[in-house]
Design goal:
disordered N terminus; about 180 residues; 4 helices
Length: about 180
């Protein structure tokens, strides 16, 4: 039989349940797996965004950000006349990828860029190293960009070089829980 103290100690040691974020106005959502939690954040690059961090502190945050990852949605009226299939074809093309590489290349050394999906939404994931900033030599960045008829969904995460290999699967798992506005 468990004593109340033993039960309390066991419950404190249990990992926290995942906490998601959903913006009712747009439908944008992130429901990260445990031990990650998501909460509303504001960032000028997004119309709506979520900060995502592990409750365990692992992987660690690199740089000066408050969150391990930020995911967000930015409306893009120019996409409205296109179907998701048309946008997927464009985002798979060399021209779109060259633009994404050049955009990131301003502040990052792009080490890898590959195709990635959030459900039926094609896009890219980028692995990169910052060119400057606090302790930039020891930081690694993961980014995902996905276009929809409503707009762009982006996720960017930053962790330490030492944590990178173990963090990459976690970043992909978080990305897989994003729901883009419909």
């Amino acid at each position: 039989m468990r004593t109340p103290v033993a039960f309390l100690l066991a419950s404190l040691a249990a990992p926290a349940a995942a906490q998601g974020f959903r913006d009712e106005a747009t439908g944008f959502a992130v429901n990260p797996p445990a031990p990650f939690v998501a909460q509303a954040t504001t960032r000028r690059q997004f119309d709506v965004g979520a900060g995502i961090s592990p409750t365990t502190g692992v992987p660690p945050i690199a740089g000066t950000g408050k969150y391990l990852c930020e995911a967000g949605f930015k409306a893009a009226p120019q996409n409205a006349g296109l179907t998701q299939a048309e946008i997927n074809a464009l985002s798979a093309g060399k021209e779109w990828r060259d633009i994404a590489r050049a955009m990131f290349g301003v502040v990052f050394h792009v080490d890898a860029m590959r195709s990635a999906r959030i459900g039926a939404i094609a896009g890219v994931e980028i692995e990169a190293r910052p060119k400057f900033g606090p302790d930039y030599e020891n930081a690694r960045v993961f980014a995902a960009i996905h276009e929809t008829p409503k707009g762009r969904v982006t996720m960017i995460c930053s962790t330490t070089k030492a944590a990178w290999a173990k963090a990459l699967p976690a970043f992909r798992a978080v990305r897989a829980t994003i729901t883009a506005p419909k």
